[in-house]
Amino acid sequence: MKQASKATKIITRVLLPTMLAILLILFLVSYWVCEQTIQAEGHARYVGMMNLASEKIANTISGAEMNAMNEFDEVEKHLDSPESVIAALESKTSLNPEVRGYFAAFEPNYFPQEGEWFEPYVHHVDSDDFVVRQVGSASHNYHKSDWYIRAKNSNESFWSDPYYYFDGTNISGHYTTFVKPVYDKTGKLACVCGADMTFEWLAKELARIDRESRNDELLNSFSSFSEAEFYTVVINNDGTCIANSEGKNVALTKEQVGRILETKKSSKIDIKINGVLSTVYLSPIEHVDWWVALVVPDQGVIKPLIKSGIALLLVTVLGVIIVWWICRRIR
Q1: What is the pLDDT of residues 199-251, one digit of tens each?
Q2: I need a labelling partner for 90 at 20 to 30 A (CA). Which of 4, 101, 105, 140 fits?
Q3: Cα–Cα distance measured from residue 83 to residue 73, given in angstroms and rounded to the nearest whole number
Q4: Within its chain, how far is the Cα of 113 from the centroid?
């Protein structure tokens, strides 16, 4: 009886607490390993999605540039008269349906009969057809516009800063313009050509990229993040959101992203977006001073951690029950 009582005390005071402590340690270590693994998996996944989105948008922009350059080359070949310039602008308007209008803003008195301001603009109005307007005037002195001055000084093509245009028609909206100076055969600056594009095409592209990422089997197979929440936006070089796919306006301040944007290198930051703690993955887009921002709300990362924690907790509880049953049998 004394030996049985002594064995019971050993089981109760030594073996059972030791086994429970071991199970608790295993639970904590396992959870830490799962947490690190899930975070590493999520980081790799979102970095890949961010880079993919940046590459796809850069390719789309590059295609728009090529189409615009074809239009500008036509203008350069037909600088002999105002009529031939307008015909050149109209000749390739169907190359890119996302372009709202093409223009050629000429130097003062390049065509003496047209005077100081000659800027034919071929653009959409209220239909899919293009119309021609002469928009240069004293009230629209494009010679003093930033894009015109920059084109004259830089002698190279570029994308303008985003801006809002309003004239009461359906062409009002947020725009960006691809600009290129055009020279005549003598090397003299003739005009500055431009292609106006709204950000509707970019929002569509972002929606398509997000949809493909969510449905991509390779990205989501064997992944703890198959149901994770995320969305992609494009921001300007001052942190302003210029395009989004889900109506989510992301406003980043210079204090939050200024240093990152200056480095022109991919990075990530943890900040509040519209009151929600989120991780933002940032990547520069080639050809333009824009950035892809992949926003991942924290709950999108916490969900798989909670699932893993619950699974490990259930296993630990089962282990405790088994240990208790074994100890009881021994007693």
Answers
A1: 888 888 888 888 877 776 665 555 554 456 788 888 887 777 788 877 777 77
A2: 140
A3: 16
A4: 46
| Residue positions counted in the chain | 331
Span 15-49, pLDDT tens digits: 667 777 776 777 677 666 666 666 667 777 788 78
- HSE-up of 32 (CA within 13 Å, CB side)? 6
Closest CA to 73 of 63, 61, 83, 85: 85
By CB neighbour count within 10 A (0-12 exposed, 13-18 middle, 19+ buried), where does 14 fall? exposed
Q: Is beta strand 130-134 parallel, antiparallel or unpaired with respect to 120-124?
A: antiparallel
The tokens of 185 are what? Answer: 């055969």
Burial class from Cβ neighbours inside 10 Å (0-12, 13-18, 19+) for residue 266 reads middle
CA-wise closest residue to 191 among 287, 94, 318, 102: 102
The tokens for 129 are: 């057809």
Q: How large is the greatest C-alpha to C-alpha distance in the chain, in angstroms?
A: 122
